Structures are given as C-alpha cells and as structure tokens.
Amino acid sequence: MSTNRIGSLQGKVALISGGATGMGGAASLLFAKEGAKVIVVDRNLEQAKARVAEIKAANGMAIAVEADVSISKQVSAAVAQGIAEFGPITVLFNHAGTIVIKPFLETTEEEWDWLHDVNVKSMFLMTKAVLPSMIEAGGGSIVCTSSISAELATPMEVLYDTTKGAVHMFARAIAVEFRDQNIRCNAVCPGFIKTPHGLREVKDLQALGVDVSDAAIAAAQGRMGEPEDVARAALYLASDDSAFITGQRLFVDNGFSAV
Fold first, then answer.
1. CB < 8 Å & 24+ apart, contacts of 218-222
2. How many angstroms separate the CA atoms of 220 and 114, rounded?
3. I want to staple 194 with a disulfide (CB 3.0 to 4.6 A). Which of 17, 52, 215, 224 is the partner?
C-alpha cells in the first residue's frame, strides 16, 4: 500500500450511531483521521461533544447529534441534521446497542421488546433514514455491529444473542436488495472487547456463575480486544478497500469463533 495514501474515507460522510464512546468512539476518531466528515450520534450529547472536540483537535471534521436511535422521529431528525451539515451520507456505521444479562426465565417481555428496539429496530430506522441520501450520492457502505454471540450462544444472554442473530440477517438482506444500487452492507462481530459494555458483561456473567475469567478469555481469544481492533475492522468494511465485499460477517475475536 502506498505510504502517501490520503485516507481510505477521504471525501466520505460517515454517520456513526453510538459514536461517543467505546468501539463507536474509537471508530469516530479513526474514520475522521481517515478523511471522513463524521456525524457522531449518541444518546449522551456531552460525551458526543467531547468526542467531536477530540476529532477537531486533530484537524478532523465532525458534529455531535443527540438521539435515541430506537425512536423514529429522533433518528429522522439526526440524519437530517447530519445531511444539512455535511451533505449526503455515504458511510453508515450502525453501532449503537446494549445488553440484557440474566437467566432466561427471569427475563420479561418488556426487556425483550426494549432490547430488540435498541439493537435491531434502531438499525432498521437508521438504515431506512440514511438510504435515500446514499442512493442519491451514487452508493455507499453500511456496517452493522453484530457479535460473536450471534453464533456462539452464551448462557444468561438469550435476548442479546437473539438480537445479534437478527443483525446478521439484516445486513445480508440489505446487501442483496441494494447491491445493484452500489450499496454494500456487512456486519462486524466483536468478541470480548475492553469497553464499559464489555467489562460490564464480564462482571455480570461472572456474578451469575458463567466462566468468563481472565484465564477463560485468554484461552478463547488470547486477550481482551481493544476498541481500536473493532474500529479498524469497521473502517475496512466502510472503505472502498472492501469494494467487492457485501453481505458478509467479519469476526473480530482473535480466533474465538474459529475453534
């Protein structure tokens, strides 16, 4: 690869949901460094503004937009604000998500509905809102955050595992339907990652008797992943470097899913 490469997202407008902290925050920084104008969408506006300030301090371009991406009106408003600021969105990183960790028989219908709203409905709403501008721009790339939990089931995470399985198929179906309009869609599937979300998952699973000790994680994937590990994978899928890749799942787990 040429050492004078300007940036794999040069000229792109990228919207990142859940883009303030963790893996989404790392992606916001990296995408901006690689030349994208970044729309950081997050429920926590102060954290989003802090991420944008960090991007601008490094001479990047970004704006912070507050939105709950499980609510249609807020999604539409966030997308409209981003387009008004930077123009048509050509990269969408559907990253926002959360988790429910508890024995299945203790979970509630309300928790089922809430988790599907945050992890799955949000991708439907955001993708539907962004696609018209992406089509207008002549194409683009969508990346959806799934998980190893979509294929490797974990006790106490039935609701979470189910939502991430839905994300897999969502990405594949969007890829097939919009391929001829020059739009790609792929899923990135992290293993255990050192974020507030990932560390809480480990703590809560251990409290329920699931072996996710340091030794168990080391045996499965060598080490805890870093947010930047996932951000770099998302960057590849978002960029033209993966122009002939769509409808795929990229596992970022250091071999956890290969065993």
1. 220/191, 220/192, 220/256, 220/259, 221/191, 221/192, 221/253, 221/254, 221/255, 221/256, 222/254, 222/255
2. 30
3. 224
pTM: 0.95
10 Å Cβ neighbour count for 206?
Answer: 13
Return the CATH superfamily for domain 13-191+226-252.
Answer: NAD(P)-binding Rossmann-like Domain (3.40.50.720)
Give residue limits of the domains in the chain.
13-191+226-252
Amino acid, single-letter form, for residue 214:
D
Catalytic residue list: 160
Residue type, 129: A
pLDDT tens digits, 88-117: 999 999 999 999 999 999 999 999 999 999
Q: Which amino acid is at 39?
A: I
Decide: 140 and 90 in contact? Cβ < 8 Å. Answer: yes
What are the CA-CA distances from residue 123 to residues 112, 146, 210 (Å)?
16, 11, 30
Give the H or E element holding residue 28: helix 22-33
Strands (E), 13-72: 13-17, 37-42, 61-66
Return the sign of the alpha-carbon dihedral for residues 225, 231, 237, 241: negative
Query: What strands, in cross-sheet order, belong to the sheet with 61-66?
Result: 61-66, 37-42, 13-17, 91-94, 140-145, 183-190, 249-252
How many percent of the chain have pLDDT more than 70?
97
